[in-house]
Amino acid sequence: MADVYWVDGDVVWVDGDVVWIGEAIIVQAATHAHSVDSPTLTQKHTLAVQGATHAHSVDGATVVLHLAPADATHSHSSDNISLTQKHTLVAQGATHSQTVDNVSVNLHLAADDATHAHSVDSPTINFTIVAADATHAHSADNLVIIEHKTLVANGATHAHTADVIDLEQRRNYGVASIQAGIVQEIKNIIQDTTYGYNDILEWMNDAQEAIAGGVFIVLSDRTQVFTSPLEPLETSEDIATTTNAYADLPSDYQRDLVYILNATRDLPVNIVETFERMITGDPVLETSGDVIEAVIKGNRLYYRGIPDSSQTLTLYYFRKPDDMASYTSTGVSFSGTTISDSNDGLGVFYAGQTIDLTGSNKNRGDFEIVSVESDGSEMTVDSTTTTESAGDSITIRSRPDGLPEHLQSDALSSYVAMRYFQRKSVTNIKMGDFAKQYAQEFYDTMIDIEVSQERTRRPMRMVANG
Questions:
Q1: pTM value?
Q2: First to last CA, the chain
Q3: Which entry of 2, 21, 149, 459 is 20 to 30 Å from 418 by CA?
Q4: What is the spatial distance between Cα 102 and Cα 141, in angstroms, rounded to a whole number?
Q5: pLDDT, tens digit, for every residue of 243-281?
Q6: Where in the chain do CATH 2.40.30 domains reside?
Q7: Closest by alpha carbon to 321, among 233, 413, 202, 396?
Q8: How do 108-111 and 118-119 pair as beta strands?
């Protein structure tokens, strides 16, 4: 082996009787020097990646070294470096580069023909976003995903950034509300572009009111039964007696008056089954005194006993379900528990409804309405919102009312489909088969609703057995 000496900054090799003098090259941070005649390094050398907390060595790598001018801070190149994932590494001499901002990635740097790879410190990525038919992947800043989800950019041919997107469990990004999902399901069933979103929403409102009011369903043995009221729609309201023997029912009354309390006297009021029985022995209902019994006829409550001064009667009954609505406005803003609209369009919603919000950068999700101003200018919700000024096009959609959540879609879509194909079968007999199919689906769903109710005040009433 040759002996090596330093002479006035030169390197001198003494190999037997032969003396070699060469110019020294110092590799930054290298522990020893190598000659200019040996640019291929077979020993370990360090590849530094920008932003890494420390570097890793690559065994057996071919490295091209660049000498730094005296005033340069540093200069390193990394040729022939591959990535085990499809992420961009900016290398010297590249014609262009693409960077992924604010996303940490589990990258592995591998030198060309290296026997193994080394990892860059501290980079991690937890989720993958795939664009359908896209030519390459998309980056995501501040992406929050509760479960494994796919964000689809349909037909995209270039990169997109998804900022601050929160995909909730069991929710598709394209259909971000219960209501819109049911509308889409009905569209898929009927395949009739004559009817738009609002047409179908109106049918859905008719469907939930019909279901809440009670429907005849036919069991497999051809027994017909009348369905029970929906428990979530049970409510109460006070009315005041008048100088007449009747008072108007609450405006939201639908069915099944179950109890009346004379709140003034703190006494129960007997509910009579029929008006005819009520007037037996007192056909003109002129008896004075406290209210002791009552009956419903039309939209009025008739009572026996006309008090000298007005008495308060508390009625317990099942109300009509609140209509679903869909409203879009650029005038919607958020502050605390208040949602405001400069266009005064919030009057289509009701206290107690659950609403889904889309289009907002800060307030996506669902809220329960506590109260709504009569002029439609604002509503109060059950949880604090993130402060946000008006400007974005925000859509508010209310959910179905009274139906069990897990059966809402089945009940409404099958009822609407049944009624749609029944009408169509008048002019096209082939549609009758579809009408029968969805009628059976609707009846099956109504049985499921009966079973799912926490309590049934009275069983389904049998009407006939054919």
A1: 0.62
A2: 110
A3: 459
A4: 6
A5: 889 999 999 999 999 999 999 999 999 999 999 888 887
A6: 326-398
A7: 233
A8: antiparallel
